[in-house]
Each structure stands twice: as C-alpha cells, then as structure tokens.
Amino acid sequence: SQQGEEDPQALSIQEGENATMNCSYKTSINNLQWYRQNSGRGLVHLILIRSNEREKHSGRLRVTLDTSKKSSSLLITASRAADTASYFCATDGETSGSRLTFGEGTQLTVNP
Amino acid sequence: DAGITQSPRHKVTETGTPVTLRCHQTENHRYMYWYRQDPGHGLRLIHYSYGVKDTDKGEVSDGYSVSRSKTEDFLLTLESATSSQTSVYFCAISESGRPDTQYFGPGTRLTVL
After folding, report:
1. Which of A51, A72, A87, B31 has a CB 3.0–4.6 Å from the CB of B94, allowing a cystine?
2. pLDDT at A2 over 60
3. How far A36 CA sits from the closest chain B CA (Å)?
4. Which residues, other chains included, contact B13 with Cβ-Cβ below 8 Å and sequence gap of 6+?
5. Rg of chain B's alpha carbons, rounded to an integer?
6. What is the CB neighbour count within 10 angstroms for residue B60?
7. What residues contact A40, with CB distance under 8 A and at least 6 apart?
8. What residue of A is the nearest CA neighbor of B57?
9. pLDDT, one tens digit for every residue, chain B (113 residues)
10. Cβ contacts (< 8 Å) between B4 and chain A: which residues?
11. How many C-beta atoms lie closer than 10 Å to residue A7's C-beta?
12. Smallest CA–CA separation between B59 and chain A, in Å?
C-alpha cells in the first residue's frame, strides 16, 4: 500500500507564483524526501528532511514536516516554467531499511 | 542521470515471452532497486539489491526475478510477460542504506501485447 499521498494531484499556476504541494503518510517515518520527475525522465532528488526537523530550505524550495499530523509540504517560490514536472514524496521508516515508499505525485504545470 | 543506464529503453513484446531489463551503473554504489511506475500508483518497488548476489523482494515482486552478479549490473527478468506488466520500469541506486538519496535511471517503457 502507498505510504505517501500527495495533494493536490494536479496544480496549474502562473510563472512567478508560489506552488505548494502536500504529502500525507500513514506510519511513523525516519526521513521524508521529495523528488521531481520531468516528463519522460527519471526522478531527481530535491531535498531530504529528517523526522526531528521541522523545516528545511534549498534555494527556492522550502519543505516542512509535521510528524504529529503525519504530513509534509513542499513550497516552490517564484515558480518558473522549468519547474513544470511531477513531484513525489518518499518516506522510509523503522522497518524499511534502505527502501523508500513513494506517493502518487503532484503534477505541477507552470504557465509562462 | 548519475551514471546509470537502462537497456533497452523501449520494448514491445507478446504475452508469455521472457523479458530481461538491464540496469548498469558506473558509480560503484552498493544498493540497486527496480521500480515500476503506473498511472494512479506512483512508483512501486519490485526488488532491490544490497550487494552482489544479495537481493530481496519489494512491494510488487510477483512475476519478477532479479540477479546481481556484479556490482555494476542489476537485471530484472519477467519469466513470462503478462499485459499487467506493461509499465515504465526505473532502476535506482544509492550509496548506502537509509537514509540516502536514490539516483534514478532514464527508465524502460515496456509494452506487453
């Protein structure tokens, strides 16, 4: 069963606007990662946040983690057309070893 | 794509035929993974390897087998392909165990008629 569920499934915004995507998960985690997938390509790692962290930044990306609500959000500020992609959260937990469980993804479209 | 290649990139085959997909890495990473990606399901782990000749099942391993005889190569075999195995298959690697970034190959699009 899928651990992570992204919300919304699809998001369309204008260039320059901020994009927020959410991920909810069911069981306790050690870490949560976000990946990006451009059309027809493999996934690319964006950022990792540990269960004892609440917020992390990387360039125009801001990730928050609320373990009490079992949820995370990915904020992309000042979006660009090149940010158009699918975004996935992935979690690992106490019993998962090196395995990640991915959500179904959010399709982000940034219109120029 | 971080020194990871997959072959073939596209394949069309018929139900009942055997199919082998290859993942090759030049990063000398210990862990390798095979995922399938289907609409509405995201990525699901098929099998993974934590070293040469060391493999384990993932979430959707039925109908698939794997082998890893060298650090750089991880093979995924469909012994008798079915239409339900039509999918895009991704290989990924990671340097160590959890927590770790996974690096993905470009994918193989497999169609089983």
Report:
1. B31
2. no
3. 11
4. B19, B81, B110, B111, B112, B113
5. 13
6. 18
7. B107
8. A99
9. 569 999 999 999 999 999 999 999 999 999 999 999 998 778 999 999 999 999 999 999 999 999 999 999 999 999 999 999 999 999 999 988 666 889 999 999 999 99
10. 42
11. 15
12. 8
Strand B10-13 versus strand B108-112 pairing type: parallel
State whether A45 and B90 contact (CB < 8 Å): no
User: Residue B31 class from Cβ within 10 Å (0-12 exposed, 13-18 middle, 19+ buried)?
Assistant: buried
Mean pLDDT of chain A: 92
Question: Tokens 């901020």 label which residue?
Answer: A18
Q: Is A80 on the interface with B (CB under 8 A)?
A: no
Chain B residues near residue A96 by CB distance under 8 angstroms: 98
- At CB < 8 A and 24+ separation, what contacts does B63-67 make? B64/B34, B66/B34
Gyration radius of chain A over CA positions: 13
- Side chain identity at A33, as an amino acid letter? Q
